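dude i think i finally got it to work??
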Amino acid sequence: MNTTADPRGLRSRLRRWTIFFIAGLVFSGLTAIPIRSQFDLASKWLGPDFQAGGWMPRFAALWLVHAHQGIVAADTAAPFIWYGTDWLAFGHLVIAAVFVGAWRDPVRNRWLYQFGTIACVAVIPWAVLFGALRGIPIWWRLIDCSFGMVGFFPCWWCHRWAGELERAQQPD
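look at this
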């Protein structure tokens, strides 16, 4: 057996980072469902700061107030619009479920890490382009891009480590 890498250590590292990635997908997916509730709660928690920008930059407070008003208007006039975010959440959960295959057998399912890496890179132009088309401020688009950057590294590392694990498991 090839002794250049510790297979148990690699498998453990792969599993930890795969769980991190899965948890991120689940969390971001589930937060796509209660958008109105989240903004209402933020408005109550932040109180006057939410309206006036007390501790946060004024541009951020103004954007959040504007977004909250739009969400309330959409929820009042056309609550069916949230069906799109329900499906967004579903997509995140399905992708998370697929990564269970990578958690179980990272060598055989190494391609999933490559897929995840590509998807994370694609988040950046997607957020920049469609954020601009929808009038989303650049600072908010950068927050959206950060999800791709945070997810990129675990997928990239896991792809490399799954290759190392494969080589470590091959007989000399």
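The chain has one domain: 7-169.
im so relieved honestly
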